[in-house]
Design goal:
The complex is a heterotrimer of chains A (about 325), B (about 325) and C (about 280). Chain A has about 325 residues and is α/β, with parallel strands linked by helices. Chain A has ten helices and twelve strands. An eight-stranded mixed beta sheet of chain A has the order 6-7-8-3-9-10-12-11, sandwiched between helices. Chain A has a four-stranded antiparallel beta sheet with strand order 2-1-4-5. In chain A, a hairpin with an 8-residue loop joins strand 1 and strand 2. The longest helix of chain A is centred in the middle third of the chain and has 18 residues. By secondary structure, chain C is mainly alpha-helical. The chains are: A alpha/beta (about 325), B alpha/beta (about 325), C mainly alpha (about 280). Chains in contact: A-B, A-C, B-C. The interface between A and B is large, with 45 and 47 residues.
Chain lengths: ~325, ~325, ~280
């Protein structure tokens, strides 16, 4: 798609694990053929459990892991790898907010240095301009100018996450990948950060990829949602379609598992999944979800289902996608 | 009302700093009936976990029990000898933790660790104990227990390890199971299974549960009554069904309002989340009066000076707020 | 439970080890620098057999040796050799070790294999034997002593640096720096190095003590400082035979080494804490 900010085509990241002496070398298909795109100003929610490959996908998008196959286009330009000019251009287009606000800030750098260094690196050398942009960005994320010379340990978790957001936005990127941005924060702080991210999105015209296991958060912020299972996208569509009319049993199981006493009983208890996610080293034959699926039939162990369209823009990789509604 | 299984009365836990002693927990009182599931909810640092540890007799320096009574089945246990407490643990009260890997012995097969409980507490011989361990694994629905019994903890997935922990905890049919964030480290679909399993086994054996969690929705789903802790005190305790419908304390209200709930956006469109302003206070800076007062929207002068008393709620339960009613 | 994390750390302001260690090292350095002014006699020329082996007294506070030279003056001058050998050679070791360890840990791959292999090789050969070989080629003297010791014991710094880098590499702020377009060298020097400095400083100060002792050993073997010029190590080894008859000959150079090495170690500990922004010692 030409107008997409980011588009991935059949992107895969495989790892070789083990050694040739003990058990031989195996291939771990952490991400195995992901195709998706993000348009300017849009928020794409990426949902899945640990081991589904969403973190690996995030690192690949950020250029921290080389893809095994497939292509990635950023802002209409194919990103070939990690040559320095590409990295600099990527840095001004795609940025990332990390999950852990403690490990993601350099403990030896003040807020000012954390925000000013990237500006200088990207050619803004005028002292006054650097200072102005640092203070402006701090104000945008709700930090006071006099906090600029403090070190990360002097801030609470929520404030650190604000610093992390400021760092991601200081180069004025177009796309921000948020990797579980609130799950490490105190419950009573999460709403502040979610609201802040949404405000900044409108204010700066940002696009987000929001990775989260919290379906409530994903539904709240996303325009479109992609559900990942064992390295592949199993369902993708508009937020309302995904949450109101899910067509993949895994999506249904995720929704059914939410312990919310207010939650409508639209999806009944029999949608719950059994067991746990298989290892990506040794995925089950056919549909990877089949050992846990309540709808399992013979065809499910025989062939991987096509990623077929159930409605415009809504696709699901399930043999029975048309029978669920 | 018959005598409760566990009665915690005016509990105070001291934290010794350098030359200063803080009250990490104070005025905490609650009762748990036989076979009842009771939830203790709060954010990290609120004192819910150390309350659980004090019930287990596991407080260690710099924490110590500074006041109050803990009564198990009519017997005061806060001052019993270490040997007596060891006898109680495992036999009458058992505990499961957030990260089972740290609670399991990595060098011993899981079957042996379960069997040990029968040998230690019930004087069984090892052969018989191993048979019963296999049965216990079957009860917690570990697939093919006859093989799994020889596995070491690292060979099991997180969900399987937590099942083993539950098997160990329930081995000797304790009266009370203390569960400290038992599913926080697990994926949502696995979490749902573990919670169902815990509830089912405890109901079958008549075991009461003290469930510690930061997730109000999870606790309200599983427990009959819920107490909400903030900064070392219980601010509200209520019947679980009504806590979402009629939260009485502004903190509980804030928690419920601040989290995006699944289905909310479809019903009402995207609303800005209501934030709880400010940060969670650290133990050295607990505010005077009601500890929630700096973050509360209904704060008045009395909140800043006077500690609110526990006021009974119309149906059942108490709230500590000057502005209630 | 993260309760313990939320208690403010209350600590002794300044850290006593920083000041005690700093003072001891300052005394050692100033006696080296000021030797010509604070020495009582010339350490080499003023031999006088009439004064041989006098116990400490008013005229000779630390006593005299078999040639009648003043021990105090020899210790003051000996500080020049011992400290310059200790400090300069350890700076070489740290530079080599940290550069290799940092790049090996960060880049990994064949470079890491090469550096790790080299490190293990260096650890397998006793560094003193290696230094001996270098001295044999370069010939005795202060400069060759510094070179020999400065090239042979970087393996500890290298190992520590590499291990620390490996544990930091996956931290979010390192990834964030890459995402912001930082180059590898910039990341190593601005993001990684400041965060692994603590253990490296401790290793370096321990290494300085070790180098001072190695200098003693090499001088004893006749490869370091040639008599009659004094160094603490050579004084100690010369005094070995008289340890029962004239104990002051070994006690005072021994004390000089002891307090200098102790001071260096304390200073290392203190500096590590001082440089850590999370310790409240700096801002109070």
């Amino acid at each position: 798609m030409a107008d997409a900010l980011l588009s991935l085509d059949d992107l895969a990241v495989h790892f070789k694990v083990g050694n040739s002496f003990a058990g031989g070398i195996k291939t771990l298909k952490a991400v195995d053929g992901v195709t998706l795109d993000v348009k300017p100003g849009e928020c794409l929610g990426l949902v899945g459990e640990s081991g589904c490959g969403k973190s690996t996908l995030a690192l690949a998008i950020m250029g921290l892991l080389p893809p095994t196959r497939g292509t990635m286009n950023v802002d209409g330009q194919q990103i070939s790898g990690s040559t320095p000019p590409d990295r600099m251009k990527m840095a001004r287009t795609v940025q990332m907010v990390f999950q852990d606000p403690y490990a993601s800030l350099n403990p030896r750098q003040t807020v000012r240095r954390t925000l000013a260094d990237p500006l200088r690196l990207h050619g803004i050398t005028d002292k006054a301009e650097v200072e102005a942009r640092v203070i402006e960005m701090m104000a945008k994320v709700g930090l006071r100018p006099e906090q600029a010379d403090r070190y990360p340990h002097e801030f609470s978790g929520g404030q650190r996450q604000r610093i992390g957001i400021a760092r991601a936005l200081i180069l004025k990127p177009k796309l921000v990948l948020c990797d579980e941005p609130v799950s490490a924060l105190d419950v009573s702080i999460r709403a502040q950060i979610i609201n802040l991210l949404l405000e900044l999105k409108d204010e700066m015209g940002l696009a987000y990829i929001m990775i989260s296991h919290d379906l409530g958060v994903v539904e709240h912020v996303s325009d479109r949602v992609a559900v990942m299972y064992l390295g592949r996208i199993v369902e993708q569509g508009g937020w309302q379609e995904i949450f109101e009319n899910p067509r993949h049993p895994y999506t249904r199981a995720l929704i059914a598992a939410i312990p919310d006493p207010f939650h409508r009983a639209a999806i009944s208890a029999d949608a719950k999944a059994r067991g746990e996610i298989a290892s990506a080293l040794n995925p089950p034959p056919g549909c990877h979800f089949n050992p846990r699926c309540p709808l399992k039939a013979d065809i499910c162990t025989a062939e991987y289902p096509a990623f077929g369209e159930v409605a415009p823009g809504h696709r699901a990789a399930c043999h029975f996608r048309d029978r669920m509604s | 009302m018959t005598t409760p299984l566990l009665k915690v009365d005016n509990l105070r836990i001291a934290l010794a700093g350098d030359g200063v002693t803080y009250n990490a927990v104070e005025n905490v009182s609650f009762e748990i009936g036989r076979g009842e599931a009771f939830g203790l909810v709060g954010e990290s640092g609120c004192g819910k976990s150390i309350t659980a540890l004090s019930v287990m007799g596991l407080l260690r320096r710099p924490l110590s029990l500074a006041g109050g009574r803990i009564v198990l089945d009519g017997q005061e246990i806060q001052n019993v000898s270490a040997a007596e407490m060891r006898r109680l643990r495992g036999k009458r009260i058992a505990m499961i933790f957030q990260e089972p890997m740290t609670a399991l012995n990595p060098l011993s097969p899981v079957g042996k660790q379960i069997a040990e409980m029968f040998v230690l507490h019930q004087g069984a011989n090892w052969n018989e104990a191993m048979d019963r361990a296999e049965e216990a694994l079957r009860q917690v629905r570990v697939p093919s227990p006859e093989r799994r019994i020889k596995d070491y903890p690292h060979q099991l997935s997180g969900g399987m390890r937590q099942r083993v922990m539950i098997a160990i905890a329930l081995a000797c049919g304790p009266d009370l199971l203390v569960a400290d964030e038992p599913t926080t480290a697990l994926d949502v679909t696995v979490q749902a299974e573990i919670i169902d399993l815990m509830a089912e086994l405890c109901a079958a054996k008549g075991t009461a549960i003290l469930m510690i969690s930061h997730d109000l929705g999870l606790v309200a789903n599983m427990c009959k009554r819920v107490a909400v802790m903030y900064a070392g005190r219980i601010v509200e305790s209520q019947v679980a069904d009504s806590i979402f419908a009629r939260p009485s304390h502004p903190y509980t209200q804030g928690l419920i309002d601040s989290l995006p709930r699944l289905g909310e956006r479809a019903r009402r469109g995207r609303q800005k989340l209501r934030e709880i302003s400010g940060v969670v206070p650290s133990i050295a800076n607990y505010p005077a009066g009601c500890r929630f007062n700096p973050r509360c929207s209904a704060v008045t002068d009395v909140c800043r000076t006077v500690v609110p008393e526990a006021t009974p709620l119309p149906a059942e339960g108490v709230v500590r707020c000057h502005h209630h009613g | 439970m993260s309760l313990a994390l939320k208690i403010p750390r209350l600590r002794l302001k300044g850290g006593s080890s920083l000041w005690v260690g700093g003072a001891l090292v300052a005394i050692a350095i100033s006696s080296a620098v000021l030797a010509p002014w604070i020495a009582l006699t010339d350490p080499v020329m003023d031999a006088n057999l009439m004064n041989a082996e006098i116990a400490p007294c008013w005229e000779f506070p630390f006593g005299t040796d078999a040639q009648g030279r003043d021990i105090y003056s020899r210790i003051v001058y000996g500080a020049r050799v011992s400290l310059s050998v200790g400090i300069i050679s350890q700076i070489c070791n740290s530079l080599i070790g940290v550069t290799l360890g940092l790049t090996a840990g960060y880049w990994g791959g064949w470079w890491d294999d090469l550096v790790s292999g080299l490190t293990n090789l260096m650890l397998a050969i006793p560094s003193l034997v290696f230094a001996l070989a270098i001295m044999a080629i370069l010939g005795p003297g202060l400069v060759s002593l510094v070179i020999a010791l400065g090239l042979t014991s970087w393996s500890y710094s290298c190992r520590i640096a590499r291990a620390q880098v490996l544990s930091l590499k996956s931290q979010g702020y390192i990834q964030a720096a890459r995402i912001l377009g930082y180059g590898d060298l910039r990341i190593m020097f601005t993001q990684v190095l400041p965060n692994i400095l603590g253990p490296l400083i401790v290793i370096a100060t321990l290494g300085m003590g070790g180098a001072i002792l190695s200098e003693a050993a090499l001088s004893f073997l006749g490869l370091g400082i040639r008599p009659p010029f004094p160094s603490w190590g050579s004084m100690l080894s010369e005094a070995r035979d008289q340890i029962t008859t004239a104990p002051w000959l070994s006690v005072f150079p021994g004390l000089a080494i002891f307090f200098t090495v102790l001071g260096l170690n304390l200073l290392g500990d203190g500096l590590r804490d001082y440089l850590d922004p999370q310790s409240t010692t700096r801002r109070g």
